[in-house]
Amino acid sequence: MQHSVIFLMQKFLYKNEDLSKHTLKEKLFIKKLMKLLVNFVKYGNPTPKNTDNVLGSLKWELFNETLKVLNFGRTIKMITLPEEKRMRFWDKLKCDFFDNDL
Predict the structure, then answer these.
(1) DSSP summary character for residue 99
(2) 3-class secondary-structure state, position 38
(3) Span 68-86, pLDDT tens digits
(4) Which of 94, 68, 93, 72 minimizes the C-alpha distance to 82?
(5) Does the keyword Transcription apply (predicted)?
(6) Whole-model pTM?
(7) CA–CA distance from 81 to each of 6, 14, 65, 70, 75 (Å)?
(8) Where are the domains of the chain?
(9) Among 27, 57, 61, 74, whose Cα sits 20 to 30 Å from the Cα of 100?
């Protein structure tokens, strides 16, 4: 999936490529992903505005103790990291049984 998204993004960047074989959902996903990347490069924030004609009301939240991440599924949204509980377990185990140098 990752390789196909990169390939589609490259095609989207080059206006002379034929995008007619892609669905509207694919084109919209590519447009949203490109907007997030361009915003991040330009502003240091993928969603610098409260509302956007491409991203809607999507708001990127800084990574902190709540472990929220940007999820690229059927919709692009912020979610709590699904592996948070397991990650905290391994972090605690490491702290309890190993030196902090690891």
Answers:
(1) -
(2) helix
(3) 888 888 888 998 887 878 8
(4) 68
(5) no
(6) 0.63
(7) 24, 34, 11, 9, 16
(8) 1-52, 61-102
(9) 61
